[in-house]
Amino acid sequence: MAMDATVEILGPKGPRTLPIAEFYRLPGDTPHREFNLHPGELVTAITVRKTPAGRASTYHKIRDRESYAFALASAAVALEMNGATVRAARIALGGVATAPWRSRAAEAILAGSPLTPELALRAGRAAFADARSGEHNAFKIELGARVVTEALTIAAERRA
User: What residue spans of 98-159 are helical by DSSP H?
Assistant: First the structure.
């Protein structure tokens, strides 16, 4: 999601390609369908294009157990940096909703500014500014903001 991947699909009507953002479905009237696949279709490839942002990137996942556990919150972050300044950011969030999503609001906060711990936290909180919790998962809003903050810090440390 953070890198605008595409999903290649093959089915009875032939091949087709979907942007990853269109691959996931919200529950709506069909909560049993998670993906925009038609009967008989199969995912044959996922393509992630190479970009300079891949040099300063990470996937950060917080879970209950060390292995094989679904994420309580996760963030995929890729940064294009000019020294300590963020030229562009890509932030995708997972484990906190029915489908992963990209936080363009958080990305916009980072663009053109030096990445500091305070700015990273502000971006993390912006990523969840419109989040609405359910009865038992309100903790995920702050957890998600902190995961984004940590992912931004890790990605920045990886820059080439």
Answer: 104-110, 117-127, 139-157
